[in-house]
Specification:
Structural class: alpha+beta
Low-confidence stretches: none
Largest sheet: 3 strands, antiparallel
Radius of gyration: 19 Å
Shape: elongated
Oligomer: single chain
Number of helices: 5
Helix content: 25-40%
């Protein structure tokens, strides 16, 4: 069952087109298992996937200006450690919002010419849960 979460901003139009680009073997697995595969963030090739943004790190001193320096430094150390650890417990299934297929997404998600683009809507995806 899909539940909204405050960390995720859903699109204003729930009928917006979404795309998933996968290789053929993953597509066959999806059909066979009738289930989406969620990859662990720490197993993806992008080592920054699931990490804090530069803006987040840069704005921390402003956001936490009332915290004593030694406490702030300890918080920074813990957040750095946490961001590395949390990637092991973060799972992802990536979709792309666009009206049309994207050549950039084909190139990003497929290593060969043997792939499938699945087109759905945000509403249909969330209802599938």
């Amino acid at each position: 069952m899909y539940k909204e979460h405050p960390a995720f901003e859903k699109p204003s139009d729930e009928d917006i087109k979404i795309w998933r680009y996968i290789d053929f073997t993953k597509f066959v697995s999806l059909l066979d298992k009738k289930a989406l595969f969620f990859a662990r963030a720490d197993r993806l090739s992008d080592s920054f996937e699931g990490s804090y943004s530069k803006a987040n790190v840069k704005l921390r001193p402003i956001m936490y200006k009332d915290i004593p320096e030694d406490s702030f430094n300890e918080m920074q150390r813990q957040l750095t450690s946490f961001s590395k650890d949390i990637r092991r417990f973060t799972i992802m299934n990536c979709w792309h919002i666009n009206d049309y297929e994207s050549a950039a997404m084909w190139n990003l998600y497929l290593k060969t010419d043997e792939g499938v683009a699945i087109q759905s809507t945000f509403k249909r995806l969330t209802e599938s849960f």
